[in-house]
UniProtKB/TrEMBL annotation:
Name of this protein: NHL domain-containing thioredoxin family protein
UniProt xrefs under Pfam families: NHL, Thioredoxin_8
Domain of life: Bacteria
UniProt NHL repeat ranges: 395-425
Species name: Actinoplanes subglobosus
Length: 597
């Protein structure tokens, strides 16, 4: 007897992109539903938004994508901020505001992003975590269309999406800014997929670089860096642009206006890179978010895989600079550190420190003499707006950073709507401005003026000089429901089923890999490390009441039907909050990919 699970109802605080209508599963009966559990801080969630665009176009009369926004940070619970994010990232499907995580819990989601497929009769047929599922979803949708057309249960036609009004104004969700040698400002106008050169006052358009249409040539560009003149002369361009959604770097010649591709295959990163130099144009990058000239190379904040990379414009090579791809906070020698979505870079005046806004750990970090340190920040789930001693101060998802001549650092504390200052000499954090609309970058101009990219207000703002205040705001922890587990031996199972038309690929050894660690490390008495099995026994410490279990799983598959079948790598990081409870289960299942659930 076939066991089928009814999809839970979509009960949220409100809806976007529906013309004000609240949707129910009954309204959507007869359509294939693809539920995308996301939160707008999450870079992997942004990857999935782009992976879903071709599916929405291909299956538009049979498929309805519903974004389920289940927030991590406090700022993401704000309906106004959510509406801005839906506009910023060009989300062209209905979105339900799951601010209280009700839908998240009903669908047993444990990671951002999670995808769930509901058939035209309202039954849950698939669930999967992470990104890279577009091809498998396409095969599954084809199967569901064939089955339900034959049964008469598929109803083709327009979906419930209602587009918002077209935006106006000079800038639309700008990302980063640099000062050009002549004093003009160059801004990445991210939501208009272009660069904008402005006069020094930041208000008058000099020229726009790019068509303003996604992909021509930019797609949500972010970071910019001006090359040293001697390097620019050889390279043939003087500005490098982080073309974020294209997963590429582009060179821009400010004299001729020419834009050229300089790094990135255009394929999103899927597998680890060794410590050698690689041909820049052949390398797979992952959401480069900011750039800085440091240690005689362009350092790239590779937000999508929680690393820093380097790019050599003369040798035209790239490689890994820092990080292991594990999403967490750990300091030490830079090859082995953990980061979480680094999104802002700035170099100290003496060129000895590279400052980093590590957004998902809400941390300010720096590299000096090959070692990474954390100046402010406590981890993935601790954030807030608290000034004072650096060991106690908190940020909330900062995206930008600017090193000042006196050794202090300004931070665009994005989700707190503030600019903060860290004084290394005093070991103190203060607030220098607040009430800003998602500041995403801070720039110190040659004349000493400070410019803030006020992204959600679509403008550049000059920072009021000399204003410093102390804020004793709230401390927050992510209120994501924890998994309760019994102390002692626990079975960790990562459930993976190849997508339709694929099989596990063993031609290069084991097709699966599982990496487990914990924060604090004392949470795990046994079971830490890397294995080539997706099931493992771990031992939880009864004397550590709670913590976060870090799990990284990947599986390699290949097509079974094609003569020259493509290969695929599915990978997901989980930061699972754990509470020790003697009455709780001794098994933790995580779904990497599940079909026919």
């Amino acid at each position: 007897m076939e066991f089928r699970v009814r999809a839970p109802e979509l009960k949220g605080r409100g809806w976007l992109n529906t013309g004000g209508k609240a949707l129910t599963l009954a309204d959507l009966r007869g359509k294939i539903l693809l539920l995308d559990f996301w939160t707008f801080c999450c870079i992997n969630c942004l990857h999935v938004l782009d992976e879903l665009r071709p599916l929405e176009e291909k299956y538009g009369d049979a498929l309805v994508v519903i974004g389920v926004h289940s927030p991590k940070f406090e700022h993401e619970r704000d309906p106004v901020a959510l509406a801005a994010a839906v506009e910023r990232y060009g989300v062209h499907h209905p979105v339900v505001d799951d601010g209280d995580m009700h839908v998240w819990q009903q669908y047993a989601a444990k990671a951002w992003p999670t995808l769930a497929v509901v058939d035209p009769e309202g039954y849950l047929v698939a669930s999967m975590a992470g990104e890279g599922h577009a091809e498998g979803l396409s095969r599954l949708i084809d199967e569901l269309i064939t089955k339900h057309e034959a049964n008469g249960t598929l109803h083709r036609g327009d979906g419930p999406y209602v587009p918002p009004p077209a935006p106006e104004g000079l800038l639309h969700f700008p990302g980063k800014v640099i000062e050009l040698p002549g004093g003009n400002l160059l801004v990445s106008d991210s939501a208009r997929h272009s660069l904008v050169e402005l006069t020094p006052d930041g208000e008058t358009l000099v020229r726009r670089i790019g068509s303003g249409v996604r992909g021509e040539p930019f797609s949500e560009p972010q970071g910019l860096v001006l090359l040293p003149p001697q390097v620019a002369e050889v390279a043939g361009y003087d500005v490098v642009v982080a073309d974020t959604v294209h997963h590429q770097l582009r060179g821009f010649n400010t004299a001729t206006g020419e834009v050229t591709l300089v790094a990135g295959s255009g394929r999103p990163w899927r597998s680890a890179v060794d410590d050698h130099a690689h041909d820049a144009l052949a390398a797979d990058l992952s959401s480069p978010w900011d750039l800085a000239w440091f240690d005689e190379k362009v350092v790239v904040a590779m937000a999508g895989i929680h690393q820093l990379w380097w790019f050599d414009p003369i040798k035209r090579t790239v490689g890994v600079y820092a990080g292991t791809t594990v999403e967490a906070l750990r300091d030490g020698p830079i090859p082995d550190v953990w980061m979480a979505q680094p999104s802002g870079l700035s170099v100290s005046a003496d060129q000895k420190k590279l400052w980093i806004a590590d957004s998902e750990t809400s941390a300010l970090r720096y590299v000096e003499d090959g070692v990474m340190h954390t100046a402010v920040g406590q981890g993935l789930f601790d954030f807030g707006h608290v000034d004072g001693p650096a060991t106690e101060a908190l940020f909330q998802h900062p995206l930008g950073v600017a090193a000042l001549a006196d050794g202090s650092v300004l931070v665009a504390d994005t989700y707190n709507g503030a600019v903060r200052r860290f004084d290394p000499a005093a070991g103190e954090v203060s607030t220098v401005d607040s009430g800003l609309a998602e500041p995403s970058d801070v720039l110190l101009l040659a004349d000493g003026t400070v410019i803030v990219v006020e992204s959600a207000a679509h403008r550049l703002t000059r920072l009021a000089p000399g204003v410093v205040k102390r804020v004793d705001g709230e401390r927050h922890k992510t209120e994501r429901p924890p998994s309760r587990l019994a102390p002692g031996a626990v079975t960790l199972d990562v459930i993976f089923t190849p997508a339709p038309g694929q099989k596990l690929d063993s031609q290069f050894g084991s097709p699966v890999r599982l990496v487990v660690s914990a924060s604090p490390a004392e949470l795990l008495l046994a079971g830490e490390g890397t294995t080539t099995e997706l099931s493992r026994e771990i031992v939880l410490n009864p004397d550590v009441p709670k913590g976060v279990l870090q799990v990284v799983a990947q599986a390699a598959t290949c097509d079974v039907d094609a003569e020259f079948g493509a290969c695929h790598l599915t990978r997901q990081d989980w930061g699972v909050p754990i509470v020790i409870d003697p009455s709780a289960p001794s098994r933790l299942p995580l779904i990497l990919r599940g079909m026919d659930a």
